[in-house]
Amino acid sequence: MAANPKSTVMTLAEFEEFAALPANRDRRLEFIDGEMIELVSNEISGHLTLLLSSLITIYVTQHDLGYTTSAESGFRIGNNDFIPDCAFIAKATREKPIGETWITVVPDLVVEVKSPTDSFSGLVNKVGHYLAAGVKQVWVVLPDKRRLDVYTQDDHHSFTVGETVTGGDVLPGFALHIADLFAKLS
Length: 186
Prior knowledge:
alpha+beta, tt1808, chain A, three-stranded antiparallel β-sheet, 4 helices, disordered N terminus
């Protein structure tokens, strides 16, 4: 999801206090490198987020691999609070959701879908945080380029229409044709 170009510098404690206010409970707020960032989306990024999240969730459920979270769930990674568009937590990492407000376990896979107000450098910064925390794969969807980038600890690969992304060791057997991901946008 997109980061609002207007951000506010504060401490983690100030962020948590602000986010807990009744007026802010329905807002999607992240806290990255000392800045509060409000997430916004549009129809294209919303469609791609739901489609990819659904495909991953169905696969994970059918193969009893663990569980997924949606863009409604936040992760506390270090002194940052992230709200990825989708995340997968393998059974070996955590058996089931336990109800944390900010999930403290590191997900195995994170998906971020670029919205029009996102900067590519901001997404790459998030990728760096995720990988440094131990996320095994980070998928960044770039709608305008019809591309899905996969980042791992030692590799980065871009998949475009005509190619197929797989889940590798994180989602064994999962495969998605990039053309199918962007089919409704053609």
